[in-house]
Write a structure and sequence with these properties.
- By secondary structure, the protein is α/β, with parallel strands linked by helices.
- 28% of the residues lie in helices and 13% in strands.
- The chain has 10 helices and 16 strands.
- The strands form 4 sheets. The protein has a 7-stranded mixed β-sheet, with helices on both faces. Strands 8-7-9-10-13 form a 5-stranded parallel β-sheet. Strands 3-4 form a two-stranded antiparallel sheet.
- The longest helix is centred in the last third of the chain and has 23 residues, at 307-329.
- The two termini are 21 Å apart.
């Protein structure tokens, strides 16, 4: 059975995150078109690793019509980093249905909106297909760490075997290697020690590590984009595994230890940041139009297994859209910092929100479908990171809550409270279909 959590508190900035103040189930009988969309995390909600969960199979069957097509616009929002067409094929095979690549939103996907950086010589950090992924996002001039290591062979000196190889064979390098103008961190790499060393070298030399800086405390920082701040994620193992957020913690700590300054992120992309949920709404609207649904999408349901990532993100977006609505009602500038329409010629946008750090602001002048959602409802399941009955905001030996979120996302414990807890995604879909007056076939 699904358990309803108590309504959200008012946060410190006065925004309400109570998702319970509206009624549903008022669909137009003539058209029978849904005015809501479904967003699913993948690991821990639909699958564990590469194995789909049985409740997820049942849930997807409930969402299909007699012809096996989805009745409700859906998208899949994961902080993993894969090629979208590969993940779409995998999800489609799991549930015997058609899934298009643009229904899959990986952690880096909203970086498509960061067009001001797309022409810069960008170092891409990650694992397989990282260069292809970056180019699919729009980054036109990329390199990977192996390119930097080959150009500056004396920098990566943690690996003793590599050091011995250099001593035997010598090194030439390429001092004419183009300056790295930006860093795109799309996922946790392998060999963290080498990645961390070379990243620090680039950050301390404005992307050209041929000469040591005279004062590391005064070096202007090149743009850094980080995709996916998850400290841990759930796969087949009995315990959560280190995620990209763990790598970022190491990078931030080393940068501050060396320079005395906080590492500045030009943009944070991926859950729980608002830009990802805004892009997800854009995607749901696109899917709805593709399905022939003409009604504006008014509600989003987001299924996740991690209270500190999925649920916080959905509640942050619910706060964001309600604040936008309040601003519009009061005649103030809409607090979205994004294009108000679908044309690149229509870019009337407001200044960045003073309540958000610059790393979380949605860029201006981007082409997105109109923002029509009025409520984003968070659905927590117990088949992944979260185990029902355990305390979400656990306290350490000093009595303080241990916070696993990113430092640019303020710790607001009440945002981990979901609109609903359900044992699994199948129970959650039953709840939604009943609430929305849609019966499973």
């Amino acid at each position: 059975m699904c358990d309803r959590f108590s309504p959200m508190h008012l946060s410190s900035d006065g925004y309400s995150s109570d998702n319970s103040d509206f009624s549903m189930g008022e669909l137009e009988n003539a058209s029978n078109q849904p005015d809501f969309g479904l967003l699913f995390d993948v690991d821990g909600v639909l699958a564990r690793g590469s194995t789909p969960l049985d409740p997820a199979k049942k849930a997807m069957e409930k969402l299909k019509d007699a012809n096996g097509h989805l009745k409700v616009p859906c998208a899949f929002v994961t902080n993993a980093c894969n090629r979208s067409h590969d993940k779409a094929r995998q999800i489609g095979n799991w549930f015997d249905m058609e899934v298009s690549p643009d229904q899959v939103i990986h952690a880096p996907t909203p970086a498509k909106l960061l067009r001001d950086l797309h022409d810069k010589h960008t170092l891409v950090i990650g694992q397989e297909h990282r260069r292809d992924i970056a180019e699919d996002l729009g980054f036109e001039n990329t390199c990977i760490l192996e390119d930097v290591r080959e150009a500056y062979p004396l920098l990566d000196y943690v690996d003793h075997e590599y050091r011995s190889k250099l001593a035997r064979e010598g090194s030439t390098g390429n001092p004419n290697f183009p300056r790295v103008e930006a860093v795109l961190l799309i996922g946790e790499p392998t060999h963290w020690e080498g990645n961390l060393q070379l990243l620090l070298d680039l950050l301390l030399t404005q992307g050209k590590p041929t000469d040591a800086p005279s004062d590391v405390h005064q070096v202007p920082q090149i743009p850094v984009i980080a995709c996916n701040m998850d400290l841990v994620f759930m796969a087949e193992a009995c315990m959560p595994r280190f995620g990209h957020g763990a790598f970022l913690v190491c990078l931030e700590a080393l940068y501050k230890k060396v320079t005395g300054k906080e590492l500045h992120y030009t943009s944070l992309v991926g859950k729980p940041c608002e830009i990802t949920y805004r892009f997800a709404e854009h995607t749901i609207t696109k899917m709805a139009r593709r399905m022939g649904i003409n009604k504006p999408i008014k509600r989003l349901y987001f299924f996740g297994d991690n209270p500190h990532v999925d649920i916080v993100g959905a509640n942050l977006y619910d706060r964001y859209i309600k604040q936008n609505a309040l601003n519009a009602q009061n005649g103030n500038a809409v607090d979205s910092t994004e294009s108000s329409g679908n044309s690149s010629d229509d870019t009337t946008s407001s200044p960045p929100s003073p309540s958000l750090p610059i790393s979380r602001v949605i860029p201006t002048g981007v082409e997105l479908n109109d923002q029509t959602v009025e409520h984003c409802l968070s659905m927590l399941v117990g088949t992944g990171v979260y185990k029902h009955g355990t305390e979400v905001n656990k306290k350490g030996p000093d009595g303080k809550v241990v916070y696993h979120g990113h430092r640019d996302i303020a710790h607001e414990p009440h945002l981990t409270n979901p609109h609903k807890y359900c044992h699994d995604v199948d129970q959650g879909i039953e709840y939604i279909l009943e609430r929305e007056s849609m019966m499973a076939h």
